[in-house]
Design goal:
It is a single chain. This protein has 519 residues and is of the alpha/beta class. The chain has 3 domains: 241 residues, FAD/NAD(P)-binding domain; 108 residues, Guanine Nucleotide Dissociation Inhibitor, domain 1, CATH 1.10.405; 126 residues, no CATH class. The protein is 33% helix and 19% strand. The chain has 17 helices and 20 strands. The strands form 5 sheets. It has a 7-stranded mixed beta sheet with strand order 8-7-16-17-18-15-19. Strands 10-2-1-14-20 form a 5-stranded parallel beta sheet, with helices on one face. A 3-stranded antiparallel beta sheet has the order 5-9-6. The two termini are 25 Å apart. Pathway: Carotenoid biosynthesis.
Length: 519
């Protein structure tokens, strides 16, 4: 039996590995000349830049994936217990980061965020002593949401509204459906602490003002398993996943853009490439953007549930402007900065409204500044750093002309890093720059309107209200990745890969042995 996976993102590769372990003949098709999707790598002049995700959490998910073997796709248990990462270390080396993030405020203060409770309390006492008791109450509330929302329900595929209604009373009892920022405000008085404990939803494309408070669980996802970095960059992780897939007999074909999913009698039968080549298959898994999959890859006559009107009404996540730059090191960068840095602006709520609601380019910027050469100097030539700074911006529904704006915005972004004192003398030290805009997400990654994370994770696009991993329109068509359940972010797309493979296994009658056989 043959399975075609459209797209070589982490979610697509995760599903492909499990399908190959089930004994299917797996072919992954990638439009671009290099793999990874959003996790691609940009290399130039001796610098290596991860183009997308850099925050790796829940290493046991990777260990579970790398431990797959022929006949053992490890579809259960959901959260295997591991001591160490022996299988992962065959493919990629992970190193823990401390702090996870240094969160910088415009007044020059900062908050070092990690998973040590005593350290977090000391940081709170240093910046906002009035919020120490509030944190303890927040901690308990977030722990309960994490227990129910992540540990117990994280791998649940919500295939119908009834599935959501069954758990709705629990979510209401946990206060997990009110907006995250409103939830955080219940526990913290200080504006700085409200930002510290709400910003993380932005890492998965969610506006803290509108995503449900179930995303407070991110605090305990990181508290439980830490934040890690793959030596060699996230690209090294992608290479490890491809190596694992190939060991299981799967293949990856690069430079193979898909034009259409073939459907015969209401069932997926393969794909047609842009050059007209037809590739037949017994099932198809799309790791592509939701609107692109249903709106472009499927013919209109092959879909009913996912109509043009439904696609048009989908609320999409924001996009990103990302500047990649190499510069001469002065040797003291690690004093001011850490591996992951969040540079907050004076505004918070209004800035978020500009990006998500007004679809306007804000006059100010908030940055996520990634400086991986503090951890892995091999990513740059000797005496240099490789970095990127990521600025949330509206998706292309804004009508902004990034062809004209891009170079100026690059100057603004890098100028801010210098003038605000994060990287003094940066412009004189620059030796390489490159940038991407929402146009990259739209035209290179086929992400509708240049969204960076799929449908925005608001309440009415969560759980069963988020696009499903098994198509309602076409039998034998499955979906995986950030656009689908459970959502965006590296842990979630790996979860998505396992959930989708589990649905396929159920449909194929793969479970002839008890679940425990896969533990």
């Amino acid at each position: 039996m043959r399975a075609i996976v459209i797209g070589s993102g982490v979610g697509g590769l995760s599903a492909a590995i499990r399908l190959a372990a089930m004994g299917l003949e797996v072919l992954v098709l990638e439009k671009l000349p290099d793999p990874g999707g959003r996790a691609r790598v940009h290399r130039a002049e001796g610098f290596t830049f991860d183009m997308g995700p850099t925050v790796i959490t829940v290493p046991p998910f990777l260990e579970d994936l790398f431990a797959t073997a022929p006949g053992e796709p490890r579809l259960y248990p959901d959260f295997p217990q591991w001591e160490g990462l022996p299988h992962t270390e065959r493919y990629v080396k992970l190193v823990p980061l401390d702090p996870f993030y240094r969160i910088h405020f415009p007044d020059g203060t900062h908050f070092d965020y990690n998973n040590d409770r005593d350290h977090l309390l000391s940081e709170i006492r240093r910046l906002a002593p009035e919020d120490e008791a509030g944190y303890l109450r927040f901690e308990e509330a977030a722990r309960r949401i994490f227990q129910r929302g992540f540990l117990e329900l994280g791998f649940t595929h919500f295939g119908s509204l009834l599935d959501l209604l069954r758990v709705a009373p629990d979510l209401l009892r946990l206060d997990a459906v009110r907006p995250l920022f409103s939830f955080v405000k219940k526990y913290f008085q200080n504006p700085k602490m409200r930002r510290v404990f709400s910003f993380e939803s932005l890492l998965i494309g969610g506006n803290p003002l509108s995503v449900p408070a179930i995303y407070a669980m991110i605090h305990f996802v990181e508290r439980n398993w830490g934040v890690h970095f793959a030596l060699g960059g996230t690209g090294a992780l992608v290479r490890g996943l491809i190596r694992k897939l190939e060991e299981l007999g799967g293949k990856v074909r690069l430079g193979a853009p898909v034009r259409r999913i073939l459907v015969r009698g209401g069932r997926a039968k393969g794909v047609v490439l842009e050059d007209g080549e037809v590739l037949k298959a017994d099932l198809v898994v799309s790791n592509a953007d939701y609107v692109h999959t249903y709106g472009e890859l499927l013919a209109p006559e092959d879909r009913f549930w996912h109509s043009d009107l439904r696609l048009k009404r989908t609320r999409l996540s924001m996009s990103l402007f990302v500047a990649y730059f190499g510069f001469k090191a002065e040797g003291d960068e690690g004093r001011r900065l850490k591996h992951h840095n969040v540079l907050l602006s004076e505004r918070y709520e209004d800035l978020l409204k500009d990006i998500f609601v007004r679809k306007a380019l804000p006059p100010d910027m908030a940055h996520y500044l990634h400086l991986p050469t503090l951890t892995d100097p091999s990513l740059a030539p000797p005496g240099h750093h490789a970095a990127y700074t990521l600025v949330p911006v509206p998706h292309n529904g804004s009508g902004l002309d990034w062809g004209a704006l891009g170079p100026t915005y690059l100057e603004r972004a890098l100028g801010y890093l210098e003038e605000a004192g994060y990287l003094p003398g940066l412009r004189e030290r620059l030796v390489y720059t490159h940038f991407i805009t929402p146009d990259y997400f739209q035209w290179t990654l086929n992400s509708h309107l240049g969204n960076a994370f799929g449908p925005e994770p608001v309440l009415w696009q969560t759980a069963s209200l988020r696009p499903h991993n098994r198509s309602e329109d076409v039998k034998g068509l499955y979906l995986v990745g950030a656009s689908y359940q459970p959502g965006a972010g590296l842990p979630s797309v790996m979860m998505s890969g396992k959930m989708t493979a589990r649905l396929i296994a159920q449909d194929l009658g793969f479970f002839q042995k008890p679940k425990e056989a896969f533990a």
